[in-house]
Amino acid sequence: MNAFSSETSLIPARMTSEHVRSLLAQRRPGYGLPGNFYTDPDIYAMDLAVIFEREWIFIGASCEIPKPGNFMTAMIGPTPIIVLRDRQGELRAFHNTCRHRGFKLCEASHGHTPALICPYHRWTYRLDGTLAHAKYMPEDFKPEEFPLLPVHLRTAGGTIYVCLAEEPPDFAPFQEAMTTQLAPHGLENAKLAYEDNLIEHGNWKMVMENSRECYHCATGHSELMITFLDIYDFANPEQNALIRGYWDKWDRAGFTASVAEGPDYRAARLPFTGSAQSITMDGSPAVSRPLGQSPADAYGSLRWVHYPSTFNHCLNDYTVLVRMLPIGPEETMVTTKWLVDADAVEGVDYTIEKLTKVWRVTNDQDKALVERNQAGVRSSGYRAGPYSPSLEAGVLKFVDWYCGKLSPRQLGVGRERVAS
Ligand code: FES
Ligand SMILES: [Fe+2]
To answer: What is the mean pLDDT of the chain?
Structure first.
C-alpha cells in the first residue's frame, strides 16, 4: 500500500485471460474488433480496470487553473477526480470524494475556492488535501487520518494527465516528446476561451477509432474540409512539396518539424490546404493575437493523440483539446476546449462563434457517425471488416494498442481483486 492506494474497479470474473484470448482470437489481423467489445458491460468493466484505471488520462491544460485555488473536475468512468492549484502554485490531483461519507465534493467543471468544503456536513479540506475542520466529531478523532486521497499527476507542455493506479506507467517518453512538440504553442500562456461537453452514445473505442481517420472527412465534414486535405500523400508531387515546404518553415524557425511517435501517442505537423490560415468557416484566423510562436507564414496544425483519452490540434491562433472519457458501455463524454492567448480579449480579438463553429459542427457530425456506427455494430449481422492500410493506419494502431493491453500479463495484474 502507498499514499496512492485506492479501491479500483474489478475485472469481472468472466473476463479470464483464457476468455479474453478466445475473444481476441476472433479478430483477424488488420480487421476491426468483434461487436461485443463495443457493447458488453463486462468488457466495459474490464476496460475501466485495465485501461482507464492504469493509464495516464488527459484532463486538460494547466492554464485552465492559473491561480491558487483554481480547480477543475472530471469523471474517469465512475471515479470523480479534482485537479487544483495549491497555495504554493503547485498542481495537485485528488479523488473528488469526501472522506466522511463519500459525498462528491465539487460538481462544477471549473471553479475557484480557498478550501474544499463538502456541501453535505461541511468537512473542510485545505488545498493540499489535508482535513482542516470536521465539526461534532469525538475528541479522539484525528483529522490527519482523513486527507483526500491523492491521485498521480504529470504535465507535458502545458497539458495535464492523471493516473489512478498505485504504480503508474512510465510517463517520461511521452512527456519528453510533447514538451518539445508543444514548446512553440504557448499553452502555458493561454486561457480557456470555451468548453463544450457532448455525450456520444457510442463505446469509448468507437469514439477514439472515429477520431483516428479522415477516411470519412470528405463525405462527413464539409466545414472541416475548408482547411483540411483528406489525404496527405507523399507520393503526390504537389502534396509532397506542400508538406515539405511547411516543415522547412518550422525548421528555419528553430522548431522541430519531425513526427513524434510512441506506442500510445503520435504528433505530426501538417499544412492546411489552399490559402487557409486557420480552422474556421472561411479559413481566416479566428483570433487576431497568435497563440505561441508558430512561424507566421506556416499555416497548419500540430495534430496529436494520446491513448486512451485525447486528440488535439495546435494552430497558429488557437488550440483545440478534445478529451474522451467513458460514461458507460455505450456512452462517452466528449469535452472540447478552445484555448487562445491569455491576453486575447473576447469581442475584440475573437468571437466564440467564429472560434468554435467548425469544431462544434464537426463534433455534431462525428456524434451522428459514431451513434450510427454503434447501431450497426450492435446488430447480430455485424462482422468486423478490414481497415484501409493507408487511410486507417491510425485506427489500426489504436486497436492493436488496445488489444496489447489485454494480454494475460496485463489481465493478471490486480487479479487478487477479481470480482466473484
Ligand atoms: S460526506 Fe462530506 S461532510 Fe459528510
Ligand atoms: Fe470525424
So the answer is: 94
* Domain extent at residue 368: 188-377
Ligand 1 centre and the CA of 102: distance in Å? 6
- pLDDT tens for 332-383 read 999 999 999 999 999 999 999 999 999 999 999 999 999 999 999 999 999 9
Q: Provide the pLDDT for residue 407.
A: 86
Binning pLDDT at 50, 70 and 90, where does residue 418 land? very low
Mapping DSSP to helix (H, G, I), strand (E, B) and coil, where does residue 177 land? helix
Residue with cell 483516428: 212
> Quick check: is 288 in a domain?
yes
CA gap 286, 280 in Å, rounded: 7
What total of structural domains would you count in the chain? 1
Where does the pLDDT of residue 414 fall: very low under 50, low under 70, confident under 90, or very high at 90 and above?
Answer: low
Pocket of ligand 1 contains residue 123 by CB under 6 Å: yes
Identify whether 210 is part of a domain.
yes
Task: Quote the CA–CA distance of 315 and 340 in Å, as a whole number.
Answer: 10
Task: With H, G, I as helix, E, B as strand and everything else as coil, classify residue 274.
Answer: coil
In short, whether 105's Cβ falls inside 6 Å of ligand 1 is no
Question: 341 near 190, Cβ under 8 Å?
Answer: yes
Enumerate helices (H) and strands (E) in the chain, giving the number of each.
9, 17
Output the DSSP codes for 25-41: HTSPTTB---GGGGT-H
CATH of the domain at 363: 3.90.380.10
Phi and psi at residue 124, in whole multiples of 5°? -125, 125
Indicate whether residue 125 lines ligand 1 (CB < 6 A). Answer: no
Nearest CA to ligand 1 atom 4: 121
- 17 within some domain: no
Taking the CA atoms of 251, 247, 358 and 282 in sequence, report the sign of the dihedral they define: positive
> What pLDDT does residue 6 have?
62
- Residue 338 bridge partners (DSSP): 194, 320
Q: What is the mean pLDDT of residues 142-156?
A: 98
Residue 172 lies in a domain: no
> Largest alpha-carbon pair distance within the chain?
79
**Which of 123, 135, 136, when mutated, tests ligand 1's pocket best, judged by the most ligand atoms within 8 Å of its CB?**
123
